[in-house]
Write a structure and sequence with these properties.
about 250 residues, alpha+beta, Aminopeptidase, 3 domains, seven-stranded mixed sheet, two-stranded antiparallel ribbon, 6 helices, binds zinc ion
């Protein structure tokens, strides 16, 4: 076949969500990867589960005639293998893969259905210290979940890890993915401030929400002959945004 069009140049630009440079194949591409697309859609859903995800889970529940137990009596928690966990995570977890998680615990209904699943990594995370600190890396519930299935499961999974000598558990919530850490707070984790690169982003007039490359940092306000404060920028029609920061949660066992 003869190619009659001119090939588009691959352009290098930075991802709206994570900021890393990537080679865009499409002229209007602004996200580097699938996980950044997920984060963007959750961000735009304002912290709520997005419509598509709710539709998907409801449809699965209907299709498989799943109903959630009213009490936790008869439910049990067991450690499961990666092979068992992976398809459930792929189906119900936002990030869609098991990532660095290596130990999985599942809560089962009395009928034997998985109602919630969590994945931990012991030594493949930033604060790894030879098995003393575990990171709660993945978690999801299914349509068969009791209202408190997630916190019930996490409590029991942490007890199991404690018996093996784990002394601390950490987890991250990502406001850019609409996460507020509600479940971690409910499970007795405390939020720990993480070192922050930049707190604010200054958006000039008529620059759209995803065009971060056209925004300035605080320092940028004092360049090119400008010496603006935030108020000066606001007066000139700019928007001052707080940059969403990931929050680290910790709990000592
Ligand atoms: Zn990205």
């Amino acid at each position: 076949m003869v190619r009659t069009y001119r090939p588009q140049p691959l352009t290098s630009r930075s991802c709206t969500i994570c900021g890393s440079r990537f080679r865009a194949k499409r002229q209007d591409a602004r996200l580097c990867s699938q996980s950044c697309r997920h984060r963007a859609s959750r961000y735009q859903a304002g912290g709520r589960v997005c419509h598509q995800h709710r539709v998907k889970v409801a449809a699965l529940a209907e299709l498989e005639q799943i109903s959630a137990p009213v009490t936790l009596a008869g439910c049990k928690v067991e450690e499961v293998s990666r092979a068992v966990a992976a398809p459930i995570i792929a189906r119900y977890e936002w990030l869609g893969d098991v990532g660095m998680a290596e130990r999985f615990f599942a809560a089962f209904t009395p009928a034997g259905e998985v109602m919630a699943l969590v994945g931990f990594t012991l030594d493949r995370h930033r604060l790894a210290d030879g098995g003393q600190t575990a990171c709660l890396a993945r978690g999801c519930t299914t349509p068969a979940a009791h209202r408190h299935a997630a916190s019930w499961l996490i409590g029991r999974a942490l007890r199991a890890l404690r018996k093996e000598g784990v002394r601390r558990v950490i987890a991250y919530s990502d406001p850019l993915a609409g996460e507020r850490g509600v479940i971690y707070a409910a499970c007795g984790f405390r939020a720990v401030p993480v070192k922050v690169k930049a707190l604010y982003r200054l958006r000039p007039p008529r620059v759209r929400w995803y065009e971060h490359h056209r925004c300035l940092s605080d320092r940028g306000l004092r360049r090119q002959g400008r010496d603006w404060s935030h108020d000066d920028a606001r007066a000139a029609g700019w928007t001052v945004e707080r940059i969403p920061q990931r929050v680290r949660w910790e709990r000592d066992l």
